[in-house]
Structure formats: C-alpha cells, structure tokens
Design a protein that fits this description.
alpha+beta
C-alpha cells in the first residue's frame, strides 16, 4: 500500500472525512488547520491539497 493511501485511511479512521455527495468529500488536514475538497473526476481522484 502506498504512503498516500495509508495516510488517507488514517484520516478516514480518525473521522476527518465527510461526504458532501457522491464522489465529493471534504477532508480535514492532518494538522487541523484546514480542509480540502476531494472529488472523483474523469476516473481519478482530484484534491485541492497543495501536494496533490
């Protein structure tokens, strides 16, 4: 499993992922100082996070 996938699963387990609608989520940052929009678009995940 990739490091990014491990981090994503950890955020999910910690209750930092909120579904807005099908294929669209808000994810609270690990540091707790922000949140990012994650969407499923054109057969891939897209994130507004700076390191995407």
């Amino acid at each position: 499993m990739s490091k990014r996938k491990d981090k994503g699963l950890k955020l999910l387990a910690e209750g930092r992922v909120f579904q807005l609608r099908e294929g669209e989520f808000i994810v609270k940052s690990e540091r707790g100082d922000g949140e990012y929009r994650v969407t499923w678009s054109r057969d891939r995940w897209v994130c507004s996070c700076p390191d995407f």
